[in-house]
Design brief:
By secondary structure, the protein is α/β, with parallel strands linked by helices. It has one domain: P-loop containing nucleotide triphosphate hydrolases (Rossmann fold, 3-Layer(aba) Sandwich), CATH 3.40.50.300. It contains ten helices and eight strands. Strands 3-4-2-5-1-6-7-8 form an eight-stranded mixed sheet, sandwiched between helices. The protein is globular.
């Protein structure tokens, strides 16, 4: 199965940006193929990656439900076979990576069917990729829904505030409470001012027993690209926030290269 790396945390912390940077990092370091999964109903990972979304799992859910209700599934094809066909069509091909987008159902009702499709799709596709990067929705509900069977590494992303650290700690607590199959959990503190982490923030991180992977400075160029609708993976290589994120990935992926099943290609 693919080595799975997931992002978690409260809304507005920069999870999607860091997920996009990770996909780009893996591709540029030839750790391919990569499956990027936007598991947030409010999808925008494609914007970070500069991809156009054609079909989402939410739209598949609507189409299958309506066709099944009206008896309009293709002749000679079961509902399961039709879903499998649509899942294959939902995978968007990029350069060195593919993208699968959760999206949101347009009609009334819960996300149970769409979440089931997401689990089925990641399970089915996992063997075809070396790495899978999952950008989870904000909050904690996605953890209890178990949108994937296992996670090799989860980054809890927080902004530089006590509330953000508290939210990251709740991710850790829920993983332990539900006995989820998450091998390693690390904290990334995003949008850190030039003065760095305050003593109070450092003490909160230590007090919760969170493992700090690194910090990412606040960066005006990211806001500028976002406001102009430019994919963030097109940022110049010397942007401080991008360099900081890559240092975090370098530190972690060195360990993966030595001990994991997918060494870096020469």
């Amino acid at each position: 199965m693919a080595y799975t790396i997931a992002m978690a945390g409260k809304g507005g912390t920069g999870k999607t940006t860091i997920a996009g940077f990770l996909v780009d990092y893996l591709v540029k370091n030839k750790m391919t193929p990569v499956l990027a999964v936007d598991a947030d109903p409010n999808s925008n990972l494609n914007q970070v990656l500069g991809m156009e979304v054609v079909t989402t799992l939410g739209e598949i859910r609507e189409e299958v439900s309506i066709k099944n209700r009206d008896g309009k599934l293709p002749s000679g094809m079961t509902k399961a076979e039709y879903i499998n066909l649509k899942l294959q069509q939902a995978v968007i091909e990029g350069h060195g990576f593919d993208l699968l987008v959760m999206g949101r159902p347009e009609g009334l009702g819960c996300y149970c069917f769409a979440n089931g499709l997401l689990r089925e799709a990641t399970d089915r596709l996992s063997d075809s990729y070396k790495f899978m990067v999952i950008d989870n929705e904000a909050g904690l509900e996605h953890l209890s829904r178990r949108t994937t069977k296992k996670v090799d590494l989860m980054f809890a992303v927080s902004e530089c505030s006590r509330r953000g650290i508290d939210a990251a700690a709740r991710v850790k607590d829920l993983i332990e409470e539900l006995d989820l199959d998450v091998k390693d959990l690390y904290l990334i503190v995003n949008r850190v001012p030039e003065s760095g982490l305050t003593q109070d923030i450092k003490e909160a991180i230590d007090g919760y027993g969170l493992k700090l992977a690194g910090t990412v400075p606040v960066d005006s160029q990211i806001f500028d690209y976002d406001n102009r609708g430019i994919p963030l993976i097109r940022l110049p290589e010397d942007v401080p926030a991008l360099k900081a994120v890559r240092e975090i990935f370098n530190s972690y992926l060195t360990t993966v290269r030595r001990t994991g099943p997918f060494p870096l290609e020469k």
